[in-house]
């Protein structure tokens, strides 16, 4: 990662902790690699994202129904789907640090490789030579001394005392080009690749034997394939139609990294869209366009999404065509969502393995067949991270009170994604009329959207605080509001009113920092439209 991108990522991670978006899971115990918690603001953001996906994929369509399958399923599901046999990654281990990496993600390295046969020690007499091959790669032009340093660390890690190593026994050195046999972080030799199944194994019930084994689901999709017949019977849908689900998935990733991007526990938003045989390719195109438009609507511009046509060699074996929608994260262009034409692979596997027919009866043609499936499968956590990266900005502005230049950190979420929609502020906290009025505005907005109330510090500071949380609107109740209230209370009825519809407040816009006066009656309508 280039320095500027790494610095940006660090700032985003720090902001996430400072403002309560994302914390390390079980932090007080040192955390758990690949597991993250969402704090108060992160939870709202994630909920907004999932709700919007649900609304667009189910409520606003006639051809999709929802599902909520269990995480634990009969192990036969994972055998039939191919996960038990093939859901694996090649794994290598750094012989020095024991850190594990995905073999297919090792950056190729060039340089000089020093091959050590072993060491000679001042102990172990009469046979002081220890046979223990180890190789180190150093960048071209670097002296052997740096390879020796790494090799010594390796032998020390294997239990030899540094002062007892009298020499390293070099066998040979050679130039290597684009090799993936060395750890890019320290040049140490990597182990041979081993196949590693990514599913978390667990036992159901009190006996821990092979008959009670099952897995935490590594994707939500299978529940929808297995339940295809049940849903078909109750939903009274004709093809094409889909089943949508949002839920947790678990993968024992070899090397969780890039904050929440690659986690061991994460959430997916998946749609299995069943179509007539032969129409898969056309639906693949349609869903690609639908999904691109959806990302635009949550604030990720089309220009930041790269559509990768996954080459034949890299596609899952059952896929007849896959697009990966990738986002320009600060740490690189990486997958947000996969859209795959899965053919009828899943239904035919489950029909075969369960012995239950899963065909669809087509009333028009009076024939039975297995539908094809197009699956847009998106990651909740990766999309939340993309929203945070896209929204994060630092800019130099003049302090509204002192006039001094300062850095403003702001999260520019589109209002429909923002965790909190409006911050409500009485201008002064020691003026009961202002406080009462601000609370009345809060009460009026609460049933409609998430709002916050803050009376501490100067208005400028309070605006900065909501900027960092990504709250798009600030509402300040000031003396002018009360003037309106006075006028209203002398209205023909003579009754005091809690929030006068004609009283005005200051509405401050997060991105432009522009302020305008708006009548409370208009404010509610404006906000409801702006955040939906
Ligand atoms: P990758 O190649 O990055 O491992 P994948 O192609 O295996 O991902 P899919 O099986 O297509 O991923 O899963 C669909 C979506 O689920 C991904 O696009 C991603 O958004 C999300 N996802 C998959 N694995 C993880 C993970 N370890 N952490 C967070 N999200 C994930």
Terminal-residue CA separation: 36 Å
Global morphology: flat
Total DSSP E strands: 26
In percent, how helical is the residue content? 25-40%
Count of helical regions: 14
Could you name the ranges where pLDDT drops below 50 across 5 or more consecutive residues? 489-497
| Cofactors and ligands | adenosine-5'-triphosphate
> Mind summarizing the main beta sheet?
7 strands, mixed
The assigned structural class equals alpha+beta
Strand order of the largest sheet: 3-12-13-19-16-15-14
- Over the alpha carbons, how many angstroms does the gyration radius reach? 30 Å
Hey, roughly how much beta strand do the residues contain? 25-35%
- Overall mean pLDDT: 93
Can you describe what's shown?
The structure is a single chain. The strands form 8 sheets. Strands 3-12-13-19-16-15-14 form a 7-stranded mixed β-sheet, sandwiched between helices. It has a 5-stranded mixed β-sheet with strand order 23-22-24-25-26, with helices on both faces. It is an alpha+beta fold and about 525 residues long. It has helices at about 5-20, 40-60, 75-80, 85, 145-155, 220-225, 230-235, 280-295, 345-355, 380-390, 430-445, 460-470, 480-490, 520-530, and strands spanning about 20-25, 35-40, 65, 90-95, 100, 110-120, 130-140, 165-180, 195, 200-205, 215, 240-250, 265-275, 305-310, 320-330, 330-345, 360, 365-370, 370-380, 390-400, 405-410, 420-425, 450-455, 475, 505-510, 515-520. The site of adenosine-5'-triphosphate has 16 residues, from strand 13, strand 16, strand 19 and helix 10.
């Amino acid at each position: 990662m280039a320095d500027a991108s790494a610095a940006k990522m660090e700032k985003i991670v720090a902001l996430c902790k400072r403002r309560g978006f994302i914390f390390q899971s079980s932090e007080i115990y040192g955390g758990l690699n690949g597991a993250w918690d969402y704090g108060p603001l992160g939870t709202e953001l994630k909920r907004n994202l999932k709700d919007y996906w649900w609304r667009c994929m189910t409520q606003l369509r006639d051809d999709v129904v929802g599902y909520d399958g269990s995480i634990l399923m009969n192990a036969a599901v994972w055998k039939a789907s191919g996960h038990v046999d093939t859901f694996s990654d090649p794994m290598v281990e750094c012989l020095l640090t024991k850190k594990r990496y995905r073999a297919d993600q090792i950056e190729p390295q060039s340089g000089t490789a020093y091959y050590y046969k072993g060491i000679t020690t001042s102990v172990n007499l009469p046979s002081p030579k220890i046979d223990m091959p180890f190789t180190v790669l150093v960048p071209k032009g670097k002296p052997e001394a740096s390879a020796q340093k790494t090799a010594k660390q390796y032998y020390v890690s294997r239990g030899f005392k540094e002062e007892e190593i009298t020499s390293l026994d070099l066998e040979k050195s050679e130039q290597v080009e684009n090799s993936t046999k060395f750890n890019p972080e320290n040049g140490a030799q990597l182990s041979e690749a081993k196949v590693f199944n990514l599913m978390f194994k667990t036992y159901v019930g009190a006996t821990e034997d092979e008959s009670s084994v099952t897995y935490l689901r590594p994707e939500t999709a299978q529940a929808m394939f297995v339940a295809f017949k049940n849903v078909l019977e109750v939903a009274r849908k004709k093809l094409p139609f889909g089943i949508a689900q949002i839920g947790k998935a678990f993968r024992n990733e070899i090397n969780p990294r890039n904050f929440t991007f690659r986690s061991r526990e994460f959430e997916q938003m998946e749609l299995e869209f069943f179509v007539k045989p032969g129409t898969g390719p056309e639906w693949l195109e349609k869903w690609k366009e639908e999904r691109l438009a959806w990302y635009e609507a949550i604030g990720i511009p089309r220009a930041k999404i790269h559509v990768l046509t996954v080459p034949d060699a890299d596609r899952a074996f059952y896929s007849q065509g896959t697009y990966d929608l990738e986002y320009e994260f600060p740490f690189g262009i990486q997958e947000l969502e996969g859209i795959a034409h899965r053919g009828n692979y899943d239904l035919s596997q489950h029909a075969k393995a369960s012995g239950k027919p899963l065909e669809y009866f087509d009333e028009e043609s009076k024939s039975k067949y297995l539908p094809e499936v197009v699956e847009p499968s998106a990651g909740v956590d990766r999309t939340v991270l993309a929203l945070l990266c896209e929204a994060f900005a630092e800019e130099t502005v003049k302090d509204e009170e002192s006039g001094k230049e300062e850095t403003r950190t702001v999260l520019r979420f589109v209002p429909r994604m923002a965790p909190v929609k409006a911050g409500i502020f009485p201008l002064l906290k020691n003026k009961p009329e202002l406080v009462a009025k601000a609370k009345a505005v809060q009460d009026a907005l609460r049933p409609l959207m998430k709002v916050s109330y803050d009376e501490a510090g100067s208005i400028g500071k309070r605006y900065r605080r909501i900027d960092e949380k990504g709250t798009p609107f600030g509402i300040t109740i000031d003396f002018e509001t009360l003037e309106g209230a006075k006028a209203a209370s002398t209205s023909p009825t003579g009754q005091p009113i809690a929030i006068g519809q004609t009283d005005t407040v200051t509405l401050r816009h997060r991105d432009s920092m522009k302020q305008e006066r708006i009548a409370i009656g208009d404010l509610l309508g404006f906000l409801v439209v702006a955040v939906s």
